[in-house]
Each structure stands twice: as structure tokens, then as C-alpha cells.
Amino acid sequence: MTDTATEMTADQIAPGSSMARVAQAATDAGLKIRILKMAQSTRTAEEAAEAAGCDVSQIVKSLVFENSQTQKLTLLLVSGAHNADMEYLSERYGLSFARCEARRVREETGFAIGGVAPIGHLAPIAVYMDRTLLEHGQVWAAAGRPDSVFSVNPQALAPAIQAEIIDVRASA
Fold it and tell me: Where are the domains of the chain?
């Protein structure tokens, strides 16, 4: 962790904020998390890894798409070391995703792009999780803001959010 990170305690988090929703969702799910607010951006996986002092593979990229079959939003949690292979996801799992407008992401999840957390959404959302995230004892995900992250055990996170574990790309 860099010197420019501040660990956020419950009394430091603004009530009703997106970060407060993340903290409450973690409590409700029985997840032990640690929220850090960074002085620098954590919008990209590389920035988040540098700020958290971890490997980029421990960063959870939260990608929101529209499921082309249902038109509902879907959350794809991908290791910061990977890019999701959309053709592979379609062929292997029958998943077809389309981009969706930032406004829709904000309205339906309660988070702005760059700060979408895997927990604390305004409404239930289907979640698919990169299998390689489970190789770590701790991962870091957005905490509801582009400058904040939280650490969590991915083995605990996956069942808490009812994530379907998938490969996001063909094995190399």
C-alpha cells in the first residue's frame, strides 16, 4: 500500500454514499473487507495495483455489459492481468454482451464507471467471475468510487455475490 492511501472507518464514510453501500453490503454478507481511499486514481488495473501495493492480477476489474439475450445488465469480474475474450465467452458459455451507456450503469447499479463495486448494487445483477481471481488469498476491487478500493478474500466474495466462476479467455 502506498503512503497516499487512507483506510476508511465506518465513521469516515459519508452516510448514503456509494462507499457506504459497499461497506453495508459487505457487513450484510459477512465479508471482511478493508476500504482504502487513495490520493491517486484507481480507475485502471495498473493504477489500482500500484496504489494498493499488489500484483495487477489481484485487481478485480468490474465490467458491466448488457446481456444481448436478456437486455439486463451483467457484471463480469476480471483479473487485472486479463482481458475478457468476448468471442471465447460466446463460444464457451453462450454469453453475448453488448456495451451499455454509462448513464444506465449509474442508474441501475448506483456506481459510476471506474468505481463499480462487485457488491452494493441498487438491484440484483448477474455476476460472472474470472476463475484466476480465486488463486489469490486477497484481491482488490472498486469500493464505489474511482479513487477507492477494498480488499477481500475472493473465495468468500464469490459465494456472497452468487458469482458464476468462468474462464474469461482460452488457456494460453
Answer: 5-166
Asked if 108 and 122 count as a contact pair (C-beta separation under 8 A), the reply is yes
Q: What is the pTM of this model?
A: 0.93
In terms of Cβ atoms closer than 10 Å to its own Cβ (0-12, 13-18, 19+), residue 94 is exposed
What does the pLDDT look like over 32-63, one tens digit per residue?
Answer: 999 999 887 777 788 888 888 899 999 999 99
- Sole residue written with cell 503512503: 3
Half-sphere exposure (Cβ direction) of 26: Cα atoms closer than 13 Å: 23
Residue corresponding to grid cell 497516499: 4
- Main-chain dihedrals φ then ψ at residue 19, nearest 5 degrees: -65, -35
* Overall fold of domain 5-166: YbaK protein (3.90.960)
Distance of alpha carbon 87 from alpha carbon 19, whole angstroms? 34
Report d(CA 165, CA 103) in Å as an integer: 28
Q: Do 22 and 119 touch, CB atoms closer than 8 A?
A: yes
